[in-house]
Amino acid sequence: MHSQVTHQHLYNPHRSTLYIVVLTLILGALQLAWSTEFSEATPFLLSLGISKRLLSLVWLAGPLSGTIGQPIVGMLSDRCMFSYGKRRVFILIGCIATVMSLIALSHSVEIVETLLLPFDVSKSKVNLGIICFACLGIYVLDFSIAIIQTSSRALIVDVVPTEQQQIANAWAARMIGIFNLVGFAIGALNLKKLFPMLGDNQFKVLSLLLKDRPKMRH
């Protein structure tokens, strides 16, 4: 029994509060992306002409990413053998995908119109392309968030000793709550007026601001 405890503490030594705060910061920062999607994506999709019936199918992305994406990510990260760390690789991939999908989603109109500009495409088909692109962006964004969430929670289990797991989970809950409040509070500001150079609507400005959100460091 003593040898097992010694072996555990060799790889998972007692962690300082600062270490745990930094470790769980990514879960809080992730809520900024989620709160932006939650508050801005629905009115944005409706403005594109998506029906409420289709909108409910689009938001299946959340449950699907949780029931399908998270178990797959967990299994793959368990088997990952990268020297950088089996969880950190997936967190990095998830962060890049989240930032890119959020920016692409908020700029769906400009991206699709630019891509279809060289072709003689009717306005109705362009609008259909914008809707399809935006719907795809929602799914990519939700699955990207699931990658970060799964890997970050698994990393807490990996690097924090058993006797500090409750403390780490408590800090994770605090971060999620705090950043949820911050995210929705930021969304209530007139960001278009504060940062006119970042975009012509709230969604675009939020997306570009979030690309510089905190990354996990150890």
TrEMBL record:
One of its GO terms (molecular function) is sucrose:proton symporter activity. Its main location: membrane. The chain crosses the membrane at residues 16-34, 54-77, 89-108, 128-150, 171-191. It is a multi-pass membrane protein. The keyword Ion transport does not apply. It is found in: Membrane. It comes from the Eukaryota. The keyword Transmembrane helix applies. InterPro entries: MFS_trans_sf. One of its GO terms (cellular component) is plasma membrane. Keywords: Membrane, Transmembrane, Transmembrane helix, Transport. This is General alpha-glucoside permease.
